[in-house]
Amino acid sequence: MAGPGEFELIREYFSSRFQTGAQAGGVDSGVVLGIGDDCALLTPPRGKMLATSVDTLVADVHFPASADPYRIASRALRVNLSDLAGMNAEPLWFTLALTLPESNAAWLEPFARGLADTARLYGITLIGGDTTKGPLSITVQVTGSCDRALRRDGASAGDHIFVSNQLGAAAAALPIVLEEYEPSEVQQQQADAAFYFPEPQLELARSIGACASAGLDISDGLLADLAHICEASGLGADLKLDTFPIAELAQSMSADAALETALTGGDDYQLCFTVPAKYLDHLQGLQLPITAVGRMREARGIDCFLGGKPWQPRGTGYRHF
Ligand SMILES: [Mg+2]
């Protein structure tokens, strides 16, 4: 059982890995005072907006409680960084609220290491946090800076719809992560990467930020998330699925199941964005890992077409476990 003294130690655990005070995050981090006082003191970048978002990951809802703590930390921070990417914001700072059943060094050491490694990779600085005793849950709040925000409400009828990289990997990874079957070594690696090390599309957001009219990160499945763009922009969409980018991990399923997984599976953290026709040549010249999947239209709703015929997915959007 962890007493309050032990939770003081946890705080020390993070303070030792993440520098406090003005040296935290380097000269441009804007951190006047980091971990250790009542509040962090921060200087926002001059002339920019701040973008902020919070996400909670609960054990046995968003990840298996028995998962490797290094990987849990990686996932917790990466899914939050993806929301910054979905807004075309540059990572600045994050806070951590950690609820733990007990103060356990064997769990905390790899967790703190996973958090520090991921933070370093994406140039984001831990500026404060809180620990409490209870069922395992991790809340991360991220803040970034933003010039030209990638909002959901900017699409126009006729805009082309794009997605980044491939979709369906995380949904196809889920039964492997839950150890429901014995995968091949390659499948195990792909599932591990998709579920615990999703790549927040920060660089891609920077590249498309100037020509995209609307966009977001795909966390609940493309159909569910595109519906958010449609709703916010007061529009509908036609999707043409003949060259849809399906992740390799999903391709061992039947063609229909693979397509459905790619369209409705959650947790991919790729970007979906819309681009006015006048920017298409410019966008194609950038040679980005993106695929055109349809057009926005006036009539509400989303219709899918495969081989020129209407195609209907059977499932909805998101599977908790
Ligand atoms: Mg999001």
Summarize the structure.
The chain has 321 residues and is α+β, with helices and mostly antiparallel strands. The protein is 33% helix and 26% strand.
Descriptive account of the structure:
The chain has helices spanning 4-17, 69-85, 105-122, 169-177, 185-196, 202-208, 222-233, 255-264, 280-285, and strands at 31-33, 41-42, 49-58, 90-100, 125-133, 137-146, 160-164, 214-218, 236-240, 270-275, 290-297, 301-306, 309-311. 33% of the residues lie in helices and 26% in strands. Helix 1 runs parallel beside helix 3. A hairpin with a 7-residue loop joins strand 1 (31-33) and strand 2. It starts with a helix and ends in a 10-residue tail after the last strand. By secondary structure, it is of the alpha+beta class. It has 9 helices and 13 strands. Bound molecules: magnesium ion (MG). Magnesium ion binds at residues 83, 86, 216-217, 219.
Hetero groups: magnesium ion
Structural class, from helix and strand content? alpha+beta
Give the biggest beta sheet: 7 strands, mixed
| C-alpha termini separation | 28 Å
Number of strands: 13
Strand order of the largest sheet: 8-10-7-11-9-12-13
What are the segments in which pLDDT stays under 50 over at least 5 consecutive residues? 317-321
Total number of distinct structural domains: 2
Radius of gyration (CA) equals 21 Å
Task: Figure out the total of helices.
Answer: 9
Family: Belongs to the thiamine-monophosphate kinase family.
Binding site for Mg(2+) 4: 38, 53, 83
Organism: Microbulbifer hydrolyticus
Domain PurM-like N-terminal: 36-144
